[in-house]
Structure formats: C-alpha cells, structure tokens
UniProtKB/TrEMBL annotation:
The lineage of its organism: Eukaryota, Metazoa, Chordata, Craniata, Vertebrata. Residues 275-454 form the Helicase C-terminal domain. Transmembrane segments: none annotated. This is RNA helicase. Keywords: ATP-binding, Helicase, Hydrolase, mRNA processing, Nucleotide-binding. It catalyses: ATP + H2O = ADP + phosphate + H(+). Belongs to the DEAD box helicase family. DEAH subfamily.
Length: 789
C-alpha cells in the first residue's frame, strides 16, 4: 500500500543544503537564494558526502561532475532506494535528467530491472539519451538507449532507457506490471502531457496491487521537474517525499522587452527584430527563438535570412568575432535527422540561431545557446466542446513554461532570456501552470488504452486532475461509434486491434477496414504520410511558392484532382529515392523517407493481425478510387460534413459546426461542386478549416451516420462506471428492435432534430435562409453607404 511518511498530511521534504565552502560550479556568478522549505517540511540537514570516484576525463563527463546535482548524489540514491515514490525538483539545468538515472545505475539499482525515464517529447528523449551515452562512454543503444514512436534504439541489455511517455503507456498494454523495469522516472512532469497524467494514475494503481511473483524488487517511481506543483503531486502519491536540489548551473537574466501588451496575439515580427538586435549587439553565443508553429517558423527563418544577408559585419556587429548567422528551424513534425542538425556546433565565427516551437522548451540542452527569445505564445491542442473537435489554437504560455524556456539559456554558460511581452502581459495573461492536456484534449485513445488495461471504471480512475466527466463520456461515445467498445463498455475485438496501432482511432479504423478488404496497400502509405512532417515544401519566396503550388496541383491532378488522401498515396508510390523528382515537385525527401519507415512498421503490425483467425475478411467489387474512399469512410465517418450554404460545410457529428476547406486542399475553390466530404483534421484561424479532404457519396456513409446519433453520451455514463445493469441492456435492446421494426430511429427528440438536419429538404431550406439573410445584410450595409455617398 502507499506509504505514509511520519508527518502525515504534510509532505516531507529533504532540503539538500548547499555547502558554503564549496565554489559554485562553472560560473563566477552568485548562487540563487536557497529554496525555502514549506512550513511542514523537515530539513534532514544532508550535507555533501566525500567526493566520489571520478569518471574518466572526457568533456561531457567533466561537465556532469560540475553540476549542482553532483553533491547530492548519495542522498538521492538513498532516497530512491528507501522509498517507492519520490519527487525530485531542481532548477533547470541542474542535472536531473542526465545525472539521476546514471547515479541510480552506478549504484546498482538497475540490477532487477531497467531504469525507464520518460520525456514528453521525441527530440528531448533522443538527445538526452545521446548525452548520457556519451557521458558513460558507451554506444547509444547499448547500456543507454531510447525508444520513441517508430524508432526503437534499445537492446535486451539496455539498462537506462529513455522513452516518450506515450511509448511507456503502450508498453503497459503488453506488460501491465512493467516487469522489465525496476525504476520508472517520469521526467519533465510539469508538461502534464496526457500520457504522463495517465501514467501517474496507472503507477499509483500498480502500487496498490500485490508484488507480482516474477518481480525481485519493488518498483520505484520518481517524478522530476524544475517547475512543478509539488504539494499537489506529493499528496497524490500518498504524501511522498520531495527532494529539492538547490542551485542552477548558470544564471539567466530575464528581460521584459515590453513589445507585447495583453491585447496582442502574434509576435513573429517582434521575435525577428529582437533576434537581429541580439545578433548585432550581444557578444558571441547562440540564440534560441520560440515561436508557435511550422508556418510562423519558416516565415521567420526566411525573414531573418533576408535581413541577415544585408548585414555589413565590418561595421554593424558589435562583437568582431561574430561573422555570420546560421538559421535552423525546429518543429515536431520534422524528421529525426533534420532535428538532430540543431545540435551540431556552428562553424567558428558563426552564430547559430534555432527557431523552434515549444518542443525545445523542456529538457533540451543545445550547447552554445546563451540567448532565448520568448514570444510568449504556444500552439496548443484544445478540445472545443462547442464544435466537438480538437483544435490547434495559439494561446499565451504559462509562467512555468516561460521559466522552462528561459532555462535553455543557462545550460553551458550564463545567459539572457528576452521576453517579448510586458510585465503586465505576464501578470494578466499568463497562468501559473499549463492546463494539463487531460483537461483540454480528446480522451478517446487514452480511454481505449485504459479499457484495454481492464480499467473499466474510467470515471473513478485516480487522475491527478480529473477530466470533465462529459469529456470522458464523449470519448466513450466515439469509441462506441467506432465499434471499439460495446454497449456494456467492454472492448470489442476491433477495439483490441485498434489499440495495437500508434495512430488515432479513426485512421486505424480505415487501415483495418482496408486490411479486411486485402487492400492495405492503399491505406498504409496514407497513414504513414499523415504521421510524419508535412511533405509539401512551401517556400517563403512568393514566386517559388507559386511554382511549388502548381507542381503540387499537378500531383493531385494525376490522381483525379479531388482527393487529398489519394494525392498523398500518389506521392508515396511515385517517389522512391531522393531524385530530381522531389526537387521538381517540391516534396520533402526526408519526410518521405520517414514515411517509408513508418509504413514498414505499420505493415508489420497489420501482417501480424491478419494472421489471426478472427481477423475480419470482406470483399468488394469496384474501382480502386472507390475502394480507397470507402475505406476512409469506415474510419472518418465521424468527420463527415455536408455542404451548407456557399462554400461552407456543416459537420454531422451532432454539433453542426460550420467549417471551410483549408486553402492547402486540392478541393479548395471546388466547394460548390461538392456535397458530402470527410476530413482528417481541423485548424482554426479566423474560421474553422478542415484539412486533408475527400469527397464521398451519401450512400457510403448513410448506414454509418445513424451511429453518430444513436446514442447520447450520457447514456454511456453507466458504462464509464462499469455498472451496466441487465435492465439497461434489455431496455436498450428493446429500443434497437423497435427501430429495426419501424425502419426508422426511435430516438430522443434531440436525435430526431439532428436527423432532420441531414435530410435534403432541410439543407435546401437552410441554404435559402442563408441567402436571404445575406441579401438582407448586403442591403442593410449598402443603405448607410449610399447615404454617406
Ligand atoms: N547535449 C549536451 N551538451 C552539452 N551539455 C549538456 C548536454 N546535455 C546536458 N548538458 C549539461 O548538463 C546539464 C544538465 O542537463 P540536464 O538535462 O540533466 O538538466 P535538467 O536538470 O534535467 O534540466 P531541465 O529541468 O531543464 O530538464 C546542462 O545544464 C548542461 O550543462
Ligand atoms: Mg530535464
């Protein structure tokens, strides 16, 4: 059971004291104030032990030896040894991610199972693993390895395994007791990613169970971060101990540039200005700029490049040793190889400038970075209950996120963080902590994972922050609509197949449908292409942009010019090497290469499933294009929309949201020729745009659409609690039978309303009403104008 430490109710803290006689590591600057313990905290007065045996003198190892965490090595190891749960906090850069797993390994704590360390992001997972392998003088993939989605660099002997939290969650599916691991470290917990939050609950549950017979030693769990809501987490883990590591490797000066006020919502132009100011006026040292997304980043890089070209280094640059600027973008959908480029040192005299999304805000050390430019914004996936979709939105970052960003500047020397916003913006617009992902995104995949782990009561699961019940019910409804769970809330066979794929459920449904029709060759490449970076190059230069657009149009015309999914398949099938082909068509070769590798891995999963005797088998007579679109319908019928007035479409999921086709789609400007469409995802600027679109026929979705309205989310609340009574099932079956007999649906008034919305006459009426309103508006507007004239 959960241990309750002596001072129950209050979290016991170790205050690791700073030895005043020891010089501060690495920098002449003064140490930050010693962190204060909370009122109930107990200082165990731990002081530095004797210096421990030094590793061989390699620069990476030497750096590790000078970090603030080093002097607390012994206390840390003992604390982990003695306690099942431990929280470790410490300034950014103090050495938590790279050093603690190493200490535990060297102290023999990996004897009975590996040390698994989770990171919320792929790029940090790989780079931290690389650093630790370097410090330990071993090959990456041997004692120290990593595993991220579609890339496993570990062996049976790997003792320190860095992985994304999503990967660990998937491993729990195969091995619910995590019997391969002796210690699990959930790192960068402040990010509160969906997977980390679920892992908190699962690991807590794991401790409530009996020790499995095949486990020699008890599992240990360590939660780490620099900017964490410590008390809340400690309470969650039975008032577990909190260990704070004082000191930072190097100080970072935080400067408010006052360029953004609370009313501003964008900041790329200011970011470029401040970056150039730093380049011209500050001493040597690399720059890390935080912007919101791929498009903003590419645009800012182009602008920076243009401006940097006209710099006269003889007169304009203050530091004479700086002779050039190397500009590198960094965002999540880039291939791993491309991401790795940012870590390479710039040539002598050249200042490196990395322009990144939030993926570089946490855990990452980019050697040489001394300046951070913080735009104050982040692109965040938020579930919009009104629209019923997960939407990417630009929102202000939290204060803890800003501290993480600033922390990137003080890793290998002292630094400065330029906050584009004002103190007023900081106080009024930025929350203290980021809203946990579990409270703002779709829970469909996670709920399916929990159900597969036999956690049926998904409402009373131990969440650190409980998601809203209606979000859980929405997820259950979606799973029910996809046929992944049954009316009793149990996972169906299809659900068991779905959970095997590291893809969103709708895409997986389409893949499985294709495999059942023996045409997975059509869908696997599409699934792979949708899982990697955008393959279409969109150059910043307007002339080149036009040229690229024409070539992209050509690629879609080759397959009929009316299906974005088919265009992706066409590219995948046509291009086999980094030939002139990619250049001609403005296609990212490296993204395609990743898609080839992803496709191979998905193919392996599907081949295994197809060998199962109960894997569905179906037949279909029809053209290849129809076959493809039918398979897509099987997965995306939740994302179906019908044309409403003018160029707008209305979603059919019960929310009836008005959406537009995104300009990047081949169907943009062809809206009036369309009736029914399905789409892959949604983005919001001034309007709601759907991306990756395919036209479908009503007959293909007709039988699937009733599923969308068949069940009210609240009808599933008992499913969420695993209390489905026989009476409920009988009632439900009776309703179903009645429906079948009457040939129409006996549903709630709400559902009838939704169904009415879908019939031809009501759509025509709605269109007429819209046109009438439009005309009235136009008249209303021209009235005053005429008067003014
Ligand atoms: N790839 C690297 N190149 C150079 N130095 C590195 C590298 N990785 C880590 N370091 C050094 O090790 C220090 C500790 O890094 P580590 O990632 O362990 O810190 P952390 O405490 O986990 O910080 P954060 O809270 O920001 O994740 C860095 O401040 C830096 O000095
Ligand atoms: Mg870290």
């Amino acid at each position: 059971s959960l241990p309750v430490l002596p001072c129950a109710g209050l979290c016991a803290r170790f205050l690791l004291t700073q030895d005043p006689l020891l010089p501060r590591p690495g920098t002449p600057s003064s140490p930050g104030p010693l962190p204060k313990a909370s009122p109930g905290a107990r200082s165990l007065g731990l002081t530095r032990g004797p210096p421990e045996a030094g590793p061989p003198p390699c620069p990476a190892v030497m750096a590790g030896a000078a970090l603030p965490i080093r002097r607390h090595r012994r206390a840390l190891v003992e604390a982990v040894r003695e306690r099942p749960f431990l929280i470790v906090t410490g300034e950014t850069g103090s050495g938590k991610s790279t050093q603690l797993p190493k200490y535990l390994f060297e102290a023999g704590l990996a004897k009975h199972g590996a040390i698994g360390v989770t990171q919320p992001r792929r790029v940090a997972t790989i780079s931290v693993a690389q650093r630790v392998a370097e410090e330990m003088g071993c090959l990456l993939g041997s004692i120290v390895g990593y595993q991220v989605r579609f890339d496993d660099c570990t062996t049976e002997d790997t003792a320190i395994k860095y992985m994304t939290d999503g990967c660990l969650l998937r491993q729990i599916l195969a091995d619910p007791l995590l019997s391969k691991y002796g210690i699990i470290i959930l790192d960068e917990a402040h990010e509160r990613s969906l997977s980390t939050d679920i892992l908190f609950g699962l690991l807590k549950k794991l401790f409530l169970q009996k020790k499995p017979p095949n486990r020699k030693a008890d599992m240990k769990v360590v939660v780490m971060s620099a900017t964490l809501e410590v008390d809340k987490l400690s309470e969650f883990f039975g008032d577990c101990s909190v260990l704070h590591i004082p000191g930072r490797s190097y100080p970072v000066k935080e400067i408010f540039c006052n360029l953004l006020s609370p009313r501003d919502i964008g900041s790329s132009a200011y970011a470029v200005k401040v970056t150039l100011d730093i380049h011209l006026n500050e001493p040597e040292g690399d720059i890390l700029v935080f912007l919101t997304g791929q498009i903003e980043i590419e645009r800012a890089c182009d602008l920076l490049f243009k401006k940097a070209e006209s710099i006269d280094y003889r007169y304009e640059v203050h530091d004479r040793s700086v002779e050039g600027l190397l500009i590198l973008p960094l965002y999540g959908s880039m291939s791993t190889d491309q991401q790795k480029r940012i870590f390479l040192p710039a040539p002598a005299g050249i200042r490196k400038c990395v322009v990144s999304t939030n993926i570089a805000a946490t855990s990452l050390t980019i050697e040489g970075v001394r300046y951070v430019v913080d735009s104050g914004f982040v692109k965040q996936l938020n579930h919009n209950p009104r629209v019923g979709l997960d939407i990417l939105e630009v929102v202000p970052i939290s204060k803890s996120e800003a501290r993480q960003r600033a922390g990137r500047a003080g890793r290998t020397s002292s630094g400065k963080s330029y906050r584009l916003y004002s103190k007023e913006f900081w106080e009024q617009c930025m929350p203290d902590h980021t809203v946990p992902e579990i409270k703002r995104t779709s829970l469909t995949s996670v709920i399916l994972t929990l159900k597969c782990l036999s956690v049926h009561d998904v409402i009373r699961f131990p969440y650190l922050d409980r998601p809203e019940e209606r979000h859980i019910l929405e997820a259950l409804k979606e799973l029910y609509q996809c046929d992944a769970i049954d009316r009793r809330g149990h996972v169906t066979r299809l659900g068991e197949f779905l959970v095997q794929f590291p893809l969103p459920p709708n895409l997986t449904c389409a893949v499985i449908k294709a495999a059942s029709l023996d045409c997975e060759d059509l869908l696997l490449p599409i699934a792979a292409m949708l899982s990697v970076e955008n393959v279409f190059i969109r150059p910043g230069d307007p002339q080149k942009q036009k040229e690229a657009e024409l070539q992209h149009q050509e690629l879609s015309s080759q397959v009929g010019g009316c299906n974005d999914f088919a265009t992706l398949l066409n590219i995948f099938e046509q291009c086999k090497s980094p030939s002139a082909w990619c250049q001609k068509y403005w296609i990212h070769w490296r993204a395609l290469k990743s898609a080839f590798s992803v496709e191979k891995q998905l193919r392996e999963i599907i081949s295994k499933l197809k060998q199962l005797p109960d894997f569905p088998k179906e037949t279909f007579e029809g053209s290849r294009t129809e076959l493809l679109r039918r398979c897509l319908c099987a997965g995306y019928f939740i994302n179906v929309a019908r044309r409403s007035a003018a160029r707008t479409f209305c979603t059919m999921d019960g929310h009836g949201s008005i959406v537009y086709i995104h300009p990047s789609s081949t169907l943009y400007n062809q809206e009036t020729l369309l009736e029914w469409i399905i789409f892959h995802d949604v983005t919001v600027t001034s309007k709601i745009y759907v991306r990756t679109v395919c036209p479908v026929r009503y007959e293909w979705v007709k039988d699937l659409l009733p599923r969308l309205h068949q069940i009210d989310a609240y009808e599933l609340s008992s499913v969420a609690r695993e209390e489905v009574t026989e009476e409920e099932i009988t009632k439900w079956k009776y309703k179903e039978d009645l429906k079948r007999q009457n040939g129409k649906h006996v549903t709630s008034p709400n559902c009838n309303k939704l169904e009415r919305r879908n019939d031809d006459q009501s759509i025509l009426d709605a269109r007429a009403r819209y046109l009438e309103r439009k005309q009235q508006r136009a008249q209303g507007l021209s009235g005053p104008l005429k008067e003014m004239g």
